[in-house]
């Protein structure tokens, strides 16, 4: 009787231990299979998700899912096995499968087995089984036969359009370059050019050229004709820049008429001086006239005087910058409206 | 101031010899009211030994002008009305058989004179035009076996009527080129026209007096030949003429499609000769750019061929010449 009672106690304790042990293991490892939905249309695609949740420790052999599950379910894509760290010492292993089926009716998805390997012990755990139901689209027979629907266009990805996009940009760039090159060529300009330097004031150019003429001592070396030609050319260029008179294409008479009756009005002295210079130069240039030394010197002196008398003081960009630095913008600017160009007074 | 001797001497000679210019102008102005440009052009043609093509509506004193000029110079004058049935022999002359002498005799045509007015030259057929233009160029005429030199001075002033185009034979470009100047006549100004009316109503037509002999003109021509033309001026002439040939290369790309052919080397020669005569008229022994510009329109207007595109755009040779003169740099 006592032996029987003792055996009952031992059996009870063992059963209790077994129950507790299996409960602990079940808490440590959880395997789960889920579907996005359990019903799809024929050929529709859904995800099958396998998850295994466990403590860090045992090595797990993830199951190799073949390309088809059962007879009818096809595996289209599979993601790599993803490991997610959870709270405490727990981790989750996850893999996602894109599946489809082309046979209507219910299709069971059997449990998936995971192999667990402890130090000297091997165990296994499985997921729940699932069932996928594939429906056939309802056909309204009353409507009669319908056209076969064209396949849906897959959404365009950046990878697909990138070559076309870059190709298009490249072609547009080539066309633009070609048009640019043709236009430059028509204008007889080089393909690439440095930006032009800021225009030098006409009086500076004229004074510099007159200095050059003086230094070269042309009339002293019997180049009288060249001497007068260069003086008149310098003055005519100056007139173009200063008074907007197309002096290079005008004769002496035409220049004098333009300066007297057109928009430009010179003072009497400057006008007379210019007339004398141009008329004397015409005699030298076209009538073999040889002036005396005094005339040569006087002509150049008059040319200097004319330029200085009629010039508009314009500062070069560098000078303006320097002045701005010094004055910090306290300069007073007055525009003389009676003249064609602005006159700057400091 | 020291003036180089030859120009100084030339200027003095011109001062002496060109006094007749004012007299001619004065006498012409007695008879012709206005048309100063025509009178100047006649003088240029006379002094440069070049012929003139006149374009203008009837009644602008073309005949009167050349008639008066011939009267002033005391030279022979003939007016030939060109018609479609005119024959070269009517112009140049022919051989006629003399029954008295029993031989062929030369009957000289009206072209054997000093001043010829070829009225409405474009009404005569091409063979008559060619006969006249050949005589203009060669200054001689061959009738039968004999060649006859034409008298000097020999000046042909041909007119073209720009209004009527039907039944005309426009002068070919090569023939037009033989005329040194083409002068376009315009209507007189209001004051001038009023004076013309008064003269006609009063029937008082002043007559020009003969003040020159043909030899005086020939002597003046010799002086005109001596008028100095500097190489800078020659270069200016070449630049202008080249601009009519290659406008794109001379800063006028817009006219590249408008001009089918430009002025010939004969134009360059005419431009230089006419400028010298103009300088002589202005009492100068040397040519200046003003002289070139003064004669450019008359010398070049008939020597530039316009394309259909130019005609479609109502572009005239006058505008092209003006633009060229405004583009080519003056020396």
TrEMBL record, chain A:
Keywords: Membrane, Signal, Transmembrane, Transmembrane helix
Name of this chain's protein: Oxygen tolerance protein BatD
Keyword Transmembrane helix carried by entry: yes
Signal peptide per UniProt: 1-26
Region (Disordered): 311-346
Source organism superkingdom: Bacteria
Spans traversing the lipid bilayer: 161-182
Keyword Transmembrane: yes
Residue stretches of biased makeup (Acidic residues): 316-334
TrEMBL record, chain B:
Residue intervals of the ATPase AAA-3 domain: 51-181
Keywords on record: ATP-binding, Nucleotide-binding
GO molecular function list: ATP binding; ATP hydrolysis activity
Alphabetized InterPro entries for the sequence: ATPase_AAA-3 (IPR011703), CbbQ/NirQ/NorQ/GpvN (IPR050764), ChlI/MoxR_AAA_lid (IPR041628), P-loop_NTPase (IPR027417)
Superkingdom as given in the UniProt entry: Bacteria
Sequence ranges assigned to domain ChlI/MoxR AAA lid in this UniProt record: 257-324
Family: Belongs to the MoxR family.
Protein name: Magnesium chelatase subunit I
Source organism per UniProt: Prolixibacter denitrificans
